[in-house]
Amino acid sequence: MRIMGKQAVLFDLDDTLLWDDRSVKEAFEATCQAGAEAAGVDPEQLEEAVRKEARALYESYETFPFTKMIGINPFEGLWANFREGEQEEFRKLEQLAPGYRKEAWTRGLRALGVDNEELGAKLAEQFPAERRKRPFVYDETFRVLDALKGKYKLLLLTNGSPDLQREKLAGVPELTPYFDHIIISGEYGEGKPAASIFRHAMERLGIEPDHGIMVGDKLTTDILGANTVGMTSVWVNRHGAVRNDEIIPSHEIAHLEELLLLLEQ
């Protein structure tokens, strides 16, 4: 795939520019440590149990097909308020969220033989606070954006709930000014890998598919979506994940800065 003639770079947000995995992991560790001390259980087992219960609970709600389409994961649900977004599903999520948080933590404790609703409620509120304290960004993010700004149009294409994605961006205020456009799936009404959101992004940028390059860490959303509309796709595979041949990126990089070398070709 030729890289020449590119006018725009489209970036995914979570685990591409923002180190969301680390933020969530450390928030779980801090909260589970508090839970473990209060209940005399193993913190790692508690995290595993809560993650499992949260996922099962999340998938049981009538909102699940919508959250899947928009691209909002169960652990985002553990700290999101869902106050924005026009669809009625967001209003349902807003009502569900406090109970979901409390239930996930209470069930996680119960799975380890601790029946303590009060502690579950306390941990359910500690987790969002811990996550909000940790807006991690990769070291190389700003170096890469500095190198691209002014040479290319830059667009952020992120799946998620509008208020939560905006809050993540507010946690790293230096990030937003780099982008000419920011598109959040929950505002648009459909998420990656839908061809429509990629076409919407191209319209905003005023480009054809072969003028753009999509950079992201998820094969099933970022790469599949770009491939579907005929845009060059760059898979950021920081952890050496092994892929099958169902979704094949145009390029694979292990580090974001490799993108600069690609674009210079």
Automatic annotation (TrEMBL):
Q: Which Pfam families match?
A: Hydrolase
GO MF entry, a single one: hydrolase activity
| Reactions catalysed | O-phospho-L-serine + H2O = L-serine + phosphate; O-phospho-D-serine + H2O = D-serine + phosphate
Pathway where this protein functions? Amino-acid biosynthesis; L-serine biosynthesis; L-serine from 3-phospho-D-glycerate: step 3/3
Which EC number(s) are documented for this chain?
3.1.3.3
Q: Which UniProt keywords apply?
A: Amino-acid biosynthesis, Cobalt, Hydrolase, Magnesium, Serine biosynthesis
Identify which top EC class this enzyme belongs to. hydrolase
Tell me its cofactors.
Answer: Mg(2+); Co(2+)
Gene3D superfamilies, from UniProt? Answer: HAD superfamily/HAD-like, Haloacid dehalogenase hydrolase-like domain
Q: Where are the transmembrane segments?
A: none
Question: What's this protein's function?
Answer: Catalyzes the last step of the phosphorylated serine biosynthetic pathway, i.e. dephosphorylation of O-phospho-L-serine to form L-serine.
Q: Which family does it belong to?
A: Belongs to the HAD-like hydrolase superfamily.
Q: Under what name is this protein listed?
A: Phosphoserine phosphatase
Organism, per UniProt?
Paenibacillus glycanilyticus
